[in-house]
Amino acid sequence: MADDTSPAREAGQEAGPDPRLDQAILRLALPALGALVAEPLFLLADTAMVGHLGTAPLAGLSLASSVLGTAVGLMVFLAYATTPTVARLRGAGDEQAAVTAGLDGLWLAAGLGTVLALVGWWVTPALVGAFGADQAVEAQAARYLSISMAGLPAMLLVYAAAGLLRGLHDTRTPLVVAALGFGANAALNAALIYGAGWGIAGSATGTVLAQWAMAAAYLGVVAGHARRVGASGRPRGAGVLRGARAGCWLLLRTASLRAGLLLVTYTAAALGSDELAAIQVAMTLFTTTAFALDALAIAAQVLVGDRLGAGDVAGVRVVLRRCVAWGVGSGVVLGAVLASLAWVLGPAFTSSAAVARLIVPAVLVLAAAQPLGGLVFVLDGVLIGAGDNRYLAWTSLTNLAAFGVLAGAVLRWAPHGQWGVICLMGANAAGFLAARAGTLSLRAFGSRWLVAGEASV
Fold first, then answer.
1. Which residue, 18, 19, 23, is CA-closest to 5?
2. Are residues 129 and 186 in the same domain?
3. Statement: the pTM of the whole predicted model exceeds 0.85
4. What does each C-alpha distance from 264 to 87, 276, 292 come to in angstroms?
5. What is the distance between the alpha carbons of residues 87 and 89, in angstroms, rounded to a whole number?
6. Same domain, yes or no, for 225 and 310?
7. 203 closest CA partner among 185, 215, 216, 177
8. How many domains are contained in the chain?
């Protein structure tokens, strides 16, 4: 099954870079980047509007968004498990089976989203109370969170539908839906918060409505694909269970990554308030640069799954090399940009001279680690594209343990000031990113994951 996004099938043995493959990578990655950046804009719009309601609503939003962010973030496997499966079946020439597998992912998302929403609504008071905030803040957080639970099924459907479309080489539709969803969210929030006078409840309601509108738009597009290829929309128990099994491994991988980020924050808090503030800025910048690198990982997922489904192992090797080149090259560029801005970012983020001074070394270490981060993100995407989820899950625990040892050393030594910031950011780079680069490279540059055909490893 040849098309304009499959150059490696014809040029798998070529020694030099294939410009068509580079074009395919960019054609997938650039719209994916736009969609990824649009997602955090939802929270940014909520924060900007709720912030004008007072301190308690803003603090309540912070608590509620932490809970929601964790729940939704852990469910990203709904996209990452669906994309390579759909791409592999598409590459094998069976587009009907590809769309059917994507529909299985949607049923799984709907089921998980419904359960999480009901349980989340029931335990909202306990979740909010666990933060130990004052009563006014807890009340605002509980109000926002209880309403927002109604949007969880929609967000998980969005993840699964986006994964299906990416597997079909369509990253533009998710970008359009995300952009329209952001606009609808902002308009609804403004109308309900200020026009209707609902306060923080208006923010939550507006976001839920926008989320369900996005889900409806996705379902309409997916239904069109199902009709086009003659795929049945009925749930298949076996297909949903296969998706759940693949998702469990990716869930463990994602939980390990989030545990690493939490460990950074925990260690920084033990070093001191100024150090914590500087590390927070640096890790926020890390999250921002991760969007660009994750877009390349999505392109790698699609292209690797597609080539393996077609039985083109040589083409997969070409994709691997080119995606690595793009990842490391993008990391070099992002690192250079961060390093050039290190001395001006501090005053932009804080009015504290002490914190601004600490931001400089934190950003410089982050900048130096960007090429390594580019390698890690791309190799992660390659192995997800191959369906090598079990390996990713188990090695994520090894990587977390490696970082835990270095973070423990920083805690024990407890350096303060610039040395504390440098040691912690360096431990994150050497103990987490480097460990991930090692375990991913060991696998990706081997051959055990290269299983061609419709079935993954």
1. 23
2. yes
3. no
4. 35, 9, 22
5. 6
6. no
7. 185
8. 2
Using the Cα atoms of residue 260, residue 266, residue 270 and residue 271 in order, give the sign of their dihedral.
positive
* Single-letter amino acid, residue 360: V
How far is Cα 143 from Cα 145, in angstroms, rounded to an integer?
A: 6
What is the identity of the amino acid at 238? A
72-76, 144-148, 181-185, 337-341: least confident range: 72-76
Q: Under a CB-based contact definition with an 8 Å cutoff, are residues 51 and 74 in contact?
A: no
Query: In Å, how far are 27, 186, 245, 246 from 242, measured between CA atoms?
Result: 30, 38, 5, 6
- The Cα 173–Cα 221 span in angstroms is 9
What's the DSSP call for residue 385?
Answer: H
- Name the packing angle between helices 200-229 and 135-148 (round to 10°): 20
Token pair of 91 as six digits: 């590459």
DSSP letter for 351, please: S
448 DSSP 8-state letter: T
Handedness of CA 302, 305, 309, 314 (dihedral sign): positive
Q: Which two tokens stand for residue 432?
A: 């987490």
Query: Tokens 């309540």 — which residue?
Result: 60
Q: How far apart, in whole angstroms, are the C-alpha atoms of residue 313 and residue 451?
A: 8
Structure tokens at 109: 């998302």
Residues 193/207, Cβ–Cβ less than 8 Å: no
Cβ contacts of residue 374 below 8 Å, gap of 6+?
A: 293, 296, 326, 327, 328, 329, 330, 331, 332, 334
Both 86 and 114 in one domain: the answer is: yes
Q: Residue 446 in contact with residue 452, Cβ under 8 Å?
A: no
CA distance 46 to 346: 25
Cβ-contact 56, 137 below 8 angstroms? yes
Point out the least confidently predicted range of 126-140, 254-268, 400-414.
126-140
CB 105 within 8 A of CB 88: no
Q: How far is CA 115 from the centre of its chain?
A: 22
Residues 6+ apart with CB under 8 A from 44: none
Stretch among 76-80, 150-154, 233-237 having the lowest mean pLDDT? 233-237
153, 126, 276: which is closest to 212 by C-alpha? Answer: 153
Classify residue 9: in a domain, yes or no. no
Q: What is the average per-residue pLDDT within 191-219?
A: 92
pLDDT mean across residues, the chain: 86
Domain C-terminal end among 178, 200, 235: 235
Higher-confidence residue: 69 or 418? 418
Closest CA to 182 of 44, 382, 371, 355: 44
Same domain, 293 and 192: no
